[in-house]
Amino acid sequence: MGTPTSGSGRHRRRIRIALPVAAAGVAAAVAGALFMSTAQASEAPPSVTRSTPLTSEELQKRAPIAVGGDDTPGQSSKESLSASSSATTIDPKIIGGTTTSITAAPWMAQLWYADKRGTASTSDDIGFFCGGAVVAPTKILTAAHCVKGYDWKANGWVVTGTSQLMGEDGDLHGGTAMRVWRQWNHWSYNATTIDNDIAVLTLPNPVRATPIRMTTNLDTTSYVAGTKATVYGWGRTSSTTQDISDTLKTAELPIQSNTTCSNYYGADYVKGHMICAGTPATGSDTGTTTACNGDSGGPLVVNNRIVGVVSWGVKDCVESGAYSVFSKISTYVGPVYPRVDDTNLNGDHLADLWVRNAADKTGYEIDSKGTSLAARQSWGTWSGYNIVLQTDLDRDGYQDLMLRRASDGDVFWKHLVPSSESWATKLIGDNWKTRRAIVTPGDVTGDYLPDMLAVDSTGILWIYPGKGNGAFAAPVKVGSGWNQYNFVRGHGDFTGDGKTDLLARNSSTGAVYLYPGTGTAGTAAFGARIKVATWSATTYNAFDAVGDVNGDGIADFLARTPGGTLYLYKGTGKASTAIFATRVSLGTSFKQYDIFG
């Protein structure tokens, strides 16, 4: 916690806007499914255990910790901010706000944390509450101070689909609860300055809640001073009590300029990383509209896009002249979006490699360890295919495969069906034998749904917009001339702007071009190409794009020499010849593989 100093030299105590609430409960979580296949006996992917159900017995132990917790997330020591049970005696609101419904904000999520610390004593228990927003079926956007240093898989759960906080008796009021599978916070989050305060929780299964999108990196309109933004949360209802709201609240806050924010908060306000919003607080509840403790991690919304995440403010939220401070999403959408689209084979935050041995047709999973690879794992015999690509077309968080059958060119979507713990195979392309390239890069069109690309025999590039369920809308033409390339690959964002990009190599010159994504469909789907390398066939004869291999939030690239050395080209986020850092060898035994996916 710091002691921020304003431009006038007055000292203010800076707090994270979060508070453990006075009512909690949870229903049984969805059980994790085994990652296995019965669709073809010889195809035997290994299993991935996501999470175990939250049993009623465990709930009975955890709920009192969350209900009675008095911890402020992000602090290394406790602060007495426990909530009382008298919330109904206070007009329930974000300070100065109004009641809203989950229908109006279906993406709102409650984040609960309870850790018994493995002791019989209650003195060292940790319990708190934060807000969040569903940005994809298995992804919750929140604040880093709610995540960093805590084991959410072991001790946390998320409630969606209800405007009411969970009851002490476990009543979800029509909502659903689910464990957390994994967590990510910005690698440069600073707990002292509360800078880079952004995080993502991944759930083990999709929620029914309708997601909300983040704004784009190019968005400046939403941040113009005076723009009306809306904040949502269950936070404190008054500066004079620690009580929070049992019902979801909302308030309209005008965006303030960087100058205004800096004049009040001084160096504690980091221009470009933060925004502040609201009218100057009056010094009391009367005349003040602001986010407050318990709203941490919740969204600030403009035109149905998240533009900020509730981060910090002054103690008790209403000090004269104060504003609420939020993490600026246009700055962080680049590193955050790969976490939204980070499905991989073994379920961590590192994109993995799938290969097939040319001789015996055995498929292997080779998991990333960041800048090296783990031992390969056999997936059984995968004969009869000439393309295997990783994707997640149904957005369930399990890695799918796109397969092309060599005999007739039919393209299949192979995906896990958790309810039956088996794999299903669906025909999605009939007789694509002459397609020069098929790519599963993620979301190209900017709707947060994975798409497919294909170059036909005449060299036309087509986008097949995904519907999020393994089906596609009618193909949209991007442009012609793509038959000049002997590889077109992409998976994720190479430039760090949160948009999906492509790489392509000219077959005659070896020139490698970056096609930066724009987040739209049609002829404007990609910007003007940028030459980033020259790699002839004698330099590399196989490539792979699987996403963020080293976990830094930027897509990476893999290239194999004719001699069999596989190199990792780590992305730098620069749309130039410096798009990749110096290559790193991942091994010399990759000549044996004929498919990289």
Strand-helix topology:
Elements: E1 14-16, H1 56-68, E2 98-99, E3 108-115, E4 126-136, E5 139-142, H2 152-155, E6 156-160, E7 176-179, E8 182-185, E9 199-202, E10 213-214, E11 228-233, E12 249-254, H3 258-265, E13 274-277, E14 299-302, E15 305-314, E16 324-328, H4 329-340, E17 353-357, E18 362-366, E19 377-381, E20 385-391, E21 400-405, E22 411-417, E23 422-429, E24 437-442, E25 451-455, E26 461-464, E27 476-479, E28 485-489, E29 502-506, E30 511-515, E31 530-534, E32 542-547, E33 556-560, E34 566-569, E35 584-587, E36 593-596
Parallel strand pairs: 10-15
Antiparallel strand pairs: 1-15, 2-12, 3-4, 3-6, 4-5, 5-9, 6-7, 8-9, 11-12, 11-14, 13-16, 14-15, 15-16, 17-18, 17-36, 18-19, 20-21, 21-22, 22-23, 24-25, 25-26, 26-27, 28-29, 29-30, 30-31, 32-33, 33-34, 34-35
